[in-house]
Amino acid sequence: MLGKWFRLHFVENPGMAWGWEFGGGIGKIILTLFRMLAVVLGTFYLRNIIHKKYHKGFIICAALIYVGALGNLIDSMFYGLIFNESEAYTNTAARLFPAGGGYAPFLHGKVVDMFYFPIIQTHYPSWFPITSWRGQDFEFFSPVFNLADASISVGVILLLVWQKKFFPRKLIVPVPNTDTNAIINDGTSASAVQQ
What we know:
This protein is α+β, with helices and mostly antiparallel strands. It is 41% helix and 14% strand. The strands form 3 sheets. A 3-stranded antiparallel beta sheet has the order 1-2-5. Strands 3-4 form a two-stranded antiparallel sheet. It has a two-stranded antiparallel sheet with strand order 6-7. The protein is flat.
């Protein structure tokens, strides 16, 4: 424990965000294949936006999302092959390259989460409008996450905050026809007219 507001935990997440799972073993394969498809398509997309010289900030955001997806994909592909399974609620963490092999086949590994930020730990007050929550524990921020999750989140948040800078709207300037003085909107942007 590094303090009351930041702790390091070792959590093996079998599914998606907040440990959500679906479909057992088949669902795990589908999730891993989806991550794999996202990384493959992300590779081509990232290459394309770099080649087309998109705004550097947008490229950085896309790269953060991409490397986060890649990190979680690597965990779910290989972690089960090279580690034994940890024992929940004990101090026994997974061992690298155990004698009997890993705990899961290819594409069935868990994603390791480790960062925990319980910034606010309190209780819902007795006057809280939702009666079933009154007096219950409240914690912000309760999810345990990893560096890949943080990379994806930061990329998405920065993309939302700076989207107007990354994708500025082009100002359409009407150009008068010199013969009839009629306004013709030919789609010429203000920057093209100024040059």
